[in-house]
Design goal:
Its cofactor is [2Fe-2S] cluster. The chain crosses the membrane at residues 87-107, 119-138. Residues 190-287 form the Rieske domain. Belongs to the bacterial ring-hydroxylating dioxygenase ferredoxin component family. This protein is elongated. Helix 2 (16-33) packs across helix 6 (112-140) and helix 5 (79-107) packs antiparallel against helix 6 (112-140). The chain has two domains: 5-170; 178-293, 3-layer Sandwich (Rieske Iron-sulfur Protein), CATH 2.102.10. The protein has helices at 5-11, 16-33, 35-43, 51-76, 79-107, 112-140, 144-170, and strands spanning 190-194, 203-208, 211-217, 224-228, 242-244, 247-249, 256-258, 264-266, 276-281, 284-289. The strands form three sheets. A four-stranded antiparallel sheet has the order 5-6-7-8. By secondary structure, the chain is of the alpha+beta class.
Amino acid sequence: MEKTIGERIVDAMPFLDRASDAVQPKVQELVDAGGATARYVLDGVWFEVPLHPVLTDVPIGSWTAALVFDGLDLVSGRTAMRNAADASLTVGVAGGFVAAAVGFSDWRYLSGGSRRMGMSHAVLNSAGLLLNTASLLLRATGRRNAGRLAFLAGYSLNGMGAHLGGELSYKYGLRVNRNAFEETGPGDYVPVLDEADLSAGEMRRIEVDGADVLLSRSEKDGRVCAIAATCNHMGGPLEKGDREGDTVVCPWHLSRFDLCSGKAINGPAVFPQSGYETRVREGRIEVKAVEENIQEKIT
């Protein structure tokens, strides 16, 4: 099979699996040591979108601005351009360290090809970040030309790292809402189960119009609730997870969802589960997809 540019870059780093074996357990331990609050912040649950892609805009944008200001400084010799370049570089370095911390947190669950590509993404970006930090030190000590060269090398490595980050999202589907690619279910109410067959405290996976749906009863008022049965983080089977009150914990990576609204309460999942409206008619539970979940497929 023909390999992408990113995969060819990864193949040029045969040490990645060994490095991942050594680093990944320590990253998992470090994040877990921070408790639920650390995971909530790092996974971006509070932001309702993955946090790492948002944060990477800061160093990429700042370093691109620094590149422009360095060029203007060389052409004009103006102190204002020199100061702007240094300030932009400083903001980028600060943002780069924060983005790296969150990126390692995202990487802690990966395996196989995505883990190798994630590690190569981290290696390239970390090397670029160190070179950009060195550039700041060189500039501060008066070795401005050496600082510019270090920055150009770092910017190049960060560019390759950013490309691999794109492949992680678009090739491997890292941190995307996987429910968006599942069947949406019926656009009108369809009977799926006898009401008497769904007991209190139960979670029942059913299939309707090609969609896998998780049925449950709310502990608060006994109403029937329905959300997508496949975890939108990495496809875990929610019916095999632990039920805690009116929430379910994914058995794979411990994402927690509200059983009635589908809202993500704890990460690593950040997107809500696809939802379904329910009603009971003549002793039968009926479900239909909420309008927001329905995507017309061109055939």
